[in-house]
Amino acid sequence: MNRTLLPELVERIGQTAVAKGLDVSAPAIAKAMKAGRVIFVIENEDGTLTGEEVRPFPSRPLLHRSAPDETKYA
């Protein structure tokens, strides 16, 4: 069993291979890396891949900023 950060594994075996091993799309891998998600990929002894994500607890969604109130500046 080998535990590797997602970007390191992508660099070693390629985005397509990692996506196929985790049963997700290649764009999903790219999006996770671009977002800076901390994902470890475990290479199991039977050759399968398993992903684990490290997230803060409790995990709260980011608040979306609304557009500035234009009436303030009129």
Topology (SSEs and partners):
Elements: E1 2-5, H1 6-13, H2 15-22, H3 26-34, E2 38-43, E3 49-54
Antiparallel strand pairs: 1-2, 2-3
Helix pairs in contact: 1-2, 2-3
Could you name the key traits of this structure?
74 residues, alpha+beta, CRO Repressor, three-stranded antiparallel sheet, globular, Lambda_DNA-bd_dom_sf, Cro-like, Cro/CI family transcriptional regulator, Cro_sf
Q: How helical, in percent, are the residues?
A: 25-40%
What is the count of helical runs?
3
| Number of extended strands | 3
Number of domains: 1
* Corresponding CATH superfamily: CRO Repressor
Mean pLDDT: 88
Distance N terminus to C terminus? 62 Å
Low-confidence parts, pLDDT < 50 over ≥5 residues?
none
The CATH C-level name is Alpha Beta
Plain-language structure description:
- This protein has about 70 residues and is α+β, with helices and mostly antiparallel strands.
- It has one domain: CRO Repressor, CATH 3.30.240.
- It is about 35% helix and about 20% strand.
- It contains three helices and three strands, in the order βαααββ.
- Helix 1 crosses helix 2.
- The N and C termini lie far apart (about 60 Å).
- The mean pLDDT is about 90.
- It comes from Pseudomonas farsensis.
- This is Cro/CI family transcriptional regulator.
- InterPro entries: Cro-like, Cro_sf, Lambda_DNA-bd_dom_sf.
- Pfam families: Cro.
Task: Summarize the entry for a quick read.
By secondary structure, the protein is an alpha+beta fold.
